[in-house]
Write a structure and sequence with these properties.
Helices cover 18% and strands 28% of the residues. The structure holds flavin-adenine dinucleotide (FAD) and NADP nicotinamide-adenine-dinucleotide phosphate.
């Protein structure tokens, strides 16, 4: 029996491709307060397991100011065996019932203050691999909605260009920044594809390679693509990083940042300072 507080309905499904989709879910008893970057546990009853409810964690892509629905971007896991929850979700339709737990997790929440109590005004660089972009959709919408004045850069890496989910949203947010001026809303977005040689990416002429390459200078001593984008050298004083993706993506980013003296939240200095927060998935 599902607790009433957890009951929810799928209100919208947008298939981006056969194994990638955006879902909107409306809890029966409303949406509690939560923080951009958190995740929750989504449950669905699995037909071939006697309709038992199976639960998995998903990052919330919607922003906390949206009280209408939660949004998620899901990859249908099919190998080596079909995933239990994602298979059921990809067969579900609008109107179907699911369950939701309360939003939780602080690995990827936005840092607001420095250890000495001053506001954290560093540039926010978000690096998402694949569906790891979800928390940063929430970040961007939240920071835009509250009129945050910090500089925000979102970098998204995917194997194929149609997996750059939210490209339209991020491009619109960048256009708004260009229109209104950086003093009002300071936002940049870049996507890259890691399999540029494949037929499906034939029309892509943007950045290529894994997303961590944005931090690596093509020629030693020169500025990295990220530094060219923001127009200055990245230092631990001027930039904080948030990463979500495969462990290889986190490691690839830290390969550049560790020698520059950057510390993660998990490996923070004695005074509580750090520059990098991350959530990995494998
Ligand atoms: C904090 C957090 C946030 C997340 N956010 C997202 C998100 O935003 N979007 C998203 O798509 N995912 C997200 N995930 C991943 C998600 O929680 C699930 O792990 C994922 O969707 C797979 O669930 P599943 O039930 O479909 O697969 P499972 O049934 O759990 O299968 C998992 C893996 O095991 C394999 N497997 C299953 N059974 C066997 C077997 N008998 N032998 C060998 N292999 C087997 C499957 O093929 C698959 O590769 C997140 C995870 C965490 C921890
Ligand atoms: N917070 C979380 O824990 C969380 C959040 C979202 C998703 N997930 C789960 O993660 C799984 C896969 O996610 P996805 O399908 O979104 O990712 P994906 O499409 O497989 O990969 C996204 C990008 O990461 C690159 N990549 C793959 N393996 C890598 C590695 N070892 N090191 C560095 N880069 C790598 C890919 O490059 P190539 O093209 O070279 O492969 C691609 O550019 C799914 O099962 C999903 O459920 C977990």
């Amino acid at each position: 029996m599902v607790a009433a507080a957890n009951k929810a309905k799928i209100s919208y499904v947008q298939l981006l491709k056969e194994d990638l989709a955006i879902f909107r879910i409306v809890p029966e008893n409303g949406i509690p307060d939560y923080k951009a970057g958190q995740f929750l546990t989504l449950g669905i009853s699995v037909a071939n397991e006697g309709y038992k409810t199976v639960r998995r964690a998903y990052s919330i892509a919607s922003h906390p100011e949206n009280r209408e629905y939660y949004e998620f971007v899901l990859r249908w896991v099919r190998k080596p065996l079909p995933g239990r929850v994602t298979t059921q979700m990809f067969y579900a339709s609008e109107g179907d019932e699911v369950t939701v737990g309360n939003p939780t997790g602080n690995a990827l929440t936005i840092n607001e203050t420095l250890p000495d109590g001053r506001p954290d005004e560093r540039r926010i660089v978000c690096i998402g691999g694949g569906t790891g972009i979800a928390p940063f959709v929430s970040f961007a919408k939240h920071l835009h909605t509250i009129g945050d004045k910090r500089e925000v850069v979102v970098l998204h890496g995917a194997s194929y260009q149609d997996e750059l989910s939210y490209r339209t949203l991020f491009t619109d947010l960048e256009t708004d920044s260009l229109d209104r001026g950086k003093d009002k809303w300071n936002f940049r977005y870049r996507g890259c594809v890691s399999r540029p040689q494949e037929w499906f990416n034939r029309s892509w002429n943007g950045p290529t390679g894994r997303v961590e390459n944005f931090l690596k200078a093509k020629v030693k001593g020169e500025m990295s693509p990220l530094e060219q984008l923001v127009g200055e050298k990245i230092t631990k004083e001027n930039t904080s990083f948030y990463i979500c993706g495969w462990q290889g993506t986190i490691d690839g980013v830290m390969e550049t940042l560790s020698p520059m003296g950057f510390k993660t939240f998990h490996d923070q200095r004695e005074d509580g300072s750090f520059e990098v927060k991350y959530e990995s998935y494998g």
